[in-house]
Amino acid sequence: MAFTMHSHSGQFCPGHAKDQLEDIILHAIKIGYKTMGLTEHMPRTDLRDLYPEELLPSPTASLAALMPRHDAYLAEAARLQRKYAAQIHILIGFEGEWIRPADYAPLVRSLAAHPAVDYFVGSLHHTAGVPIDLDAATYARAVEASGGSEQLLFERYFDEQHGMLAELRPRVVGHFDLVRLLSERPGRPLKEEWPGVWERVVRNLELIRGYGGWLECNTSALRKGLDEAYPKREIAEEWVKMGGKFTMSDDSHGIAQVATNYLRGLDYLEGLSVKEVWTLERRLAGEGVKADLVEKSVSLDEFRASLRLE
C-alpha cells in the first residue's frame, strides 16, 4: 500500500509548486497510492517571512492572501476527500513553520485544532530567521546569522528544532536534517567531526521517540542532488537503534514529483534493515468532529508491490 505523508500543490502553494490539487490526487491514484497526506505550507504572519516569488507585485497583498488561501485549501481538500474516498484514503494536514516560536507556536496549534485537520508535519525551513534551503547566498546569510560557521548553523538548527519538537510534538517530523541540503559537505560524518552537533541530533531523536513521533524517509533529498534521503544514514541508523518508526514522503511539489525516487528510498530503508513504514487511518467520529486516527504499518514489500511506476 503506497502512500505519502507530505505533499504540496501549485494551487495552494503558487510559485513554489505546480499543478492543481485534484490533478495531483488523480495521478497518485493512477500510480498506486492508497493513502495520501495533503500538507500544504501553513500561512506565514510577517512580511519578512515571504519568499522572493511572493514579493511581486505586492508583498502586502501576498501576505494578506495566505490565510484565506489556507481556508480555501481545507475546503477543497475536504471535498476531494469525499469525492475520491472509494479510490484513495486522503489525510488532511499542513506543514508547519518555526521561524519565531512566539509567533508560530500558537498559530500551529490553532491551525491544528481545525476539525478537518488530521495531523501536521513539524518542519524547520529557517534558522536564525533565515531560510536554509532556498539558495546558496541565502544559506550563507543563515551561516552568518548563526555565528559565522556551518558547525554553529547546524547546532542552532538542531536547537531550534528541539524547541519545536518539545513545544508541538508533531506526529510526523519533516526532513529531519534539511540543514545539510546546501552544506559544503552534505555527507559529513557528524558523529566524528562535529560531536556537539551529533549530541543535539541524538537528543532530538530521543525526544521524538519518547513522545511517539515518526521520522519521514523523505526522498526529496534525492531529487535535489543529495546521495541519501532525509535523514542521512548515520542519523537513520541511530533512529533504528532506538526503535523509532519511519513514515514515507515524496514531499512532492506537483505531479512530476509524486513518488519520485521512491524505489531508491525503499532500497535505502531496506539497507537499514527497516521492514515497515507507518501511516494513519481515519475513523470518522461525526460531522464537525475530528476523526479518530489509527496508526497503520505497511511492509516495504507491500508498499513496493502496490506502486505502478513506468
Question: Keywords, please?
Answer:
single chain, 310 residues, alpha/beta, TIM Barrel, 7-stranded parallel β-sheet, two-stranded antiparallel sheet, 11 helices, 11 strands, 41% helix, globular, amino-acid biosynthesis, Histidinol_P_phosphatase_HisJ, Pol/histidinol_Pase-like, histidinol-phosphatase activity, Histidinol-phosphatase
Brief sketch in words of this structure:
The protein has 310 residues and is of the alpha/beta class. It has helices spanning 21-30, 59-83, 101-112, 136-145, 150-168, 190-193, 195-211, 220-223, 233-242, 262-271, 300-306, and strands spanning 2-4, 33-41, 89-95, 119-122, 126-127, 130-131, 172-173, 214-218, 245-249, 276-283, 292-299.
Describe the structure.
The protein is α/β, with parallel strands linked by helices and 310 residues long. It has one domain (2-306): Metal-dependent hydrolases (TIM Barrel), CATH 3.20.20.140. 41% of the residues lie in helices and 18% in strands. The protein has helices spanning 21-30, 59-83, 101-112, 136-145, 150-168, 190-193, 195-211, 220-223, 233-242, 262-271, 300-306, and strands spanning 2-4, 33-41, 89-95, 119-122, 126-127, 130-131, 172-173, 214-218, 245-249, 276-283, 292-299. The strands form three sheets. The protein has a seven-stranded parallel β-sheet with strand order 1-2-3-4-7-8-9. Strands 5-6 form a two-stranded antiparallel sheet. Helix 3 (101-112) packs across helix 5, helix 5 runs parallel beside helix 7 and helix 7 (195-211) packs across helix 9 (233-242). Its EC number is 3.1.3.15.
